[in-house]
Design a protein that fits this description.
With 504 residues, the protein is of the alpha/beta class. 50% of the residues lie in helices and 8% in strands. The chain contains 20 helices and 8 strands. Helix 3 packs across helix 4, helix 3 crosses helix 20 and helix 5 packs across helix 11. The chain is globular, with a radius of gyration of 30 Å. The structure holds guanosine-5'-triphosphate and magnesium ion. The site of magnesium ion has 4 residues, from helix 3. One of its GO terms (molecular function) is metal ion binding.
């Protein structure tokens, strides 16, 4: 068809007898129309982007206490919101100092008990039992010629008591006492899964949390960041080395630095190590205690600044459900869906699980953490329950939930580094899991055995056909975790786009 035959071209064509003035007016009008049209396009694009932005992906981090949920969240913050993370980093210093001091104070307490106990003949440590130590049977004979030096060491470390209290107060902690009190009052219901109808009776032995607990993560981070900013703005003390971070009038840092040599002497003393070993204190102190104790010369200094690794190891127990809104900062992450995430980090103990239920509504994905190194451990809140068994019970309840049948489930079989260590140390799996039989006691065999078990639980319990996404992780390894998280995130977005259940 010739152009002039087209009604639209004809209608829009300028009149054949158009004067130069009329042409100028027409061209100006056309320019103006183009400008307005471009403005409208721009506004529409912005609106579209805003709409996409509103598609916030909601993800829950679930799993038993100490499974690594909060540590996974830190990995996400580090990888996806690096600017916000950099601002937050300094606020972790007090938590790390507190982690180290609590370990030292616990060891000092054990030493004091040994020093004050009537001397019994040294006995061989009994076969390892996961029910905890018994000081009476594991007492160690302290030679007379060492007693005086150890007593002095203990005395010189007493200022750390005060610092522990100060740091707790600063962080708004000390809340482990609140939890104890509420437990005593029966306020904290024990539930194996969030779907249980009724709480089961609290075990006779009281649950005594060993970690620092704070109610709101925002409050202490804001306080600590403000403190740091104020410290930086205040002139240095005369005896501070120039340019050092001891510009702070931070008495915790000063006391720690002053006690550094004594803390190191305590931790490296063979007799003290023997006390720690016999009382199985490392098991009581949590998975990061050894890391911090091995870093005393670096952490107990006036100019200490936390590294990312330190923060990943810093332990602070999550209470209730805490919401984190992450807006991905990188250029590549500006594609709308998958840019805005609301992540819910929950407290994992059996006393906290009833609180998860309201968060199951509208959630797109659940990242479930099962610490597979816990095959020989028991829950802190209920010593009758094996940790791995608890993870399976919980995983099964999530898999079979009707409410969660459309939710994407991702499983992190976490703490692989600790599992490898235990197996290398010769701990026998079949002693704790008879079903494991006489299979090889090595990481490869055990991890694939567990992976198959978790997969079976998913496929046999899910109300609808579901794919199994299981990863072996050590979330204290930020590099490896960043890679896993990137593929998890892409996977979630792809699956979500395919899913008919889009509710964003
Ligand atoms: N070695 C090692 N330590 C880990 C790993 N994952 C977590 N941790 C440590 O285990 C401790 C508990 O981790 P968290 O992330 O606080 O556990 P959580 O699941 O948030 O626990 P709750 O808040 O009590 O529910 C911390 O000291 C972590 O540094 C891991 O893969 N390997
Ligand atoms: Mg946590």
């Amino acid at each position: 068809m010739h152009e002039s035959d087209d009604p639209l071209t004809r209608a829009l064509a300028p009149p054949p007898d158009e004067t130069p003035e009329a042409k100028e007016v027409r061209l100006r009008a056309e320019d103006e129309a183009r400008r307005v049209s471009e403005q409208i396009d721009e506004a529409l694009n912005k609106e579209r982007a805003a709409l996409k932005k509103k598609k916030v992906m909601k993800m829950l981090l679930l799993g038993q206490s100490e499974s690594g949920k909060s540590t996974t969240l830190k990995n996400m913050q580090m990888a996806y919101t690096p600017r916000a993370w950099a601002q937050e980093r300094a606020s972790w210093k007090a938590v790390i100092q507190l982690n180290l001091i609590r370990s030292i104070n616990t060891i000092v307490d054990a030493l004091a008990e040994e020093l004050s106990a009537p001397q019994a003949p040294t006995r061989q440590s009994s076969q390892s039992s996961d029910e905890g130590h018994s000081p009476a049977t594991d007492q160690i004979a302290i030679p007379q010629d060492r007693r005086g030096a150890l007593m002095k060491l203990r005395m010189r470390l007493t200022p750390l008591r005060q610092v522990e209290g100060d740091l707790k107060a600063r962080l708004g902690a000390g809340t482990d006492e609140i939890t104890e009190a509420s437990l005593a009052a029966g306020a904290e219901a024990m539930m194996a899964t969030p779907f249980d109808d009724a709480a089961y009776p609290t075990p006779a032995r009281r649950f005594s949390p060993r970690d620092v607990v704070v109610r709101s993560h925002r409050a202490w981070k804001e306080r600590e960041t403000a403190r740091k900013t104020k410290d930086r703005a205040t002139p240095q003390r005369p005896n501070s080395p120039p340019g050092s971070a001891s510009d702070s009038r931070d008495s915790a840092t000063d006391v720690l630095a002053g006690c550094a040599d004594d803390m190191l002497a305590l931790w490296t003393d063979p007799l003290v190590r023997e006390i720690v070993r016999r009382r199985r204190l490392m098991g009581q102190l949590g998975d990061s205690a050894e890391y911090f104790l091995s870093c005393i010369p670096r952490i107990a200094t006036r100019d200490y600044e936390p590294s990312d690794n330190d923060i990943l190891r810093a332990r602070i127990r999550t209470l209730g459900v805490q919401e984190y809104n992450l807006t991905f900062e990188s250029e590549d992450d500006t594609r709308g869906l998958g840019r805005e995430w609301a992540i819910y980090d929950v407290g994992g103990s059996r006393t906290s699980r009833a609180a998860w239920l309201p968060y199951f509504v509208d959630v797109h994905a659940i990242l479930f953490l099962a610490p597979i190194s816990g095959f020989d451990e028991r829950l802190l809140e209920d010593r009758r329950v094996n940790r791995l068994e608890d993870s399976f019970i919980l995983w099964q309840s999530i898999c079979k939930s009707e409410l969660l049948k459309k939710v994407i489930l991702i499983l992190f079989m976490n703490k692989c580094d600790l599992l490898e260590r235990k197996l290398k140390a010769g701990i026998q799996i079949s002693r704790y899991m008879t079903s494991y039989g006489n299979r090889a006691n090595d990481f490869g065999t055990f991890s694939s055995y567990l992976k198959n078990k978790f997969r079976d639980v998913l496929t046999t319990n899910s109300p609808e056909k579901r794919h199994f996404y299981g990863y072996m992780t050590s979330v204290v390894d930020s590099e490896a975790t960043a890679k896993t998280l990137a593929s998890v995130r892409d996977g979630i977005i792809q699956l979500h786009l395919k899913s008919a259940a889009f509710v964003g």
